[in-house]
Amino acid sequence: MYSGEFLVKLARRTIETYLKDNKKIGIPNDAPKDLFDHSGVFVTLHRIIPGKEPNLRGCIGRIESPQSTLIQSTIDSAIDAAIHDPRFPPVTSDEMETITVEITILTVPEVIKVTDPQEYFDLIEIGKHGLIAERGPYQRGLLLPQVPVEQKWNLSTYLDYICVKAGLPTQSWKNLNTKISRFEGYIFTEKTPKGEIKQKDII
Fold first, then answer.
1. What is the CATH number of domain 110-183?
2. Which CATH superfamily groups domain 4-107+185-200?
3. Which residues touch 179 (CB under 8 Å, ≥6 apart)?
4. What share of the chain is helix, strand, coil (3-state, %, to 5)?
5. Greatest CA span in the chain, whole angstroms?
6. Each residue of 68-116: pLDDT tens digit?
């Protein structure tokens, strides 16, 4: 599988360099060849507070694109997660001492073709599948496979929330005009800020 440890270290170095010098780093010369594939990727930042659950501090990524390699998407997404996530103020250099960096490498999304929305309950597995909901050219939302596990959602709630993420009413997944796609994710994360990096099991 992809060189996840390399990507996590790269994402952290990207953020720290950008925060310090306002400069985007280039692709390292020693980058493994598999990172030049065109896989999608998300960068997730969590602030670690002793004695408390980690707090989400930023999460932005890119779905597979022929215009960008996995390694370039990681660099771009790392900066966006730290600076441009509209839900949070920009991360500061000092804060990076308390933040863990997590990378989710996405498989190619596949549209789940159904004739009855109840079929989703046999075709989507919590903890395995991330979801994308789409309606028309402008309404689209994505949730990573770890999200319903962290939030303790059942599948019905998961489907509701992916519709909300796309700007649609809950239960829009019951309308066949709403396209639902699934994908899988390979997650690599720091166990502690700047600490050991491990591949993460969702469940």
1. 3.30.1490.150
2. Hypothetical protein ph0010; domain 1 (3.30.700.20)
3. 111, 133, 134, 135
4. 35, 25, 40
5. 53
6. 999 999 999 999 999 999 999 999 999 999 999 999 999 999 999 999 9
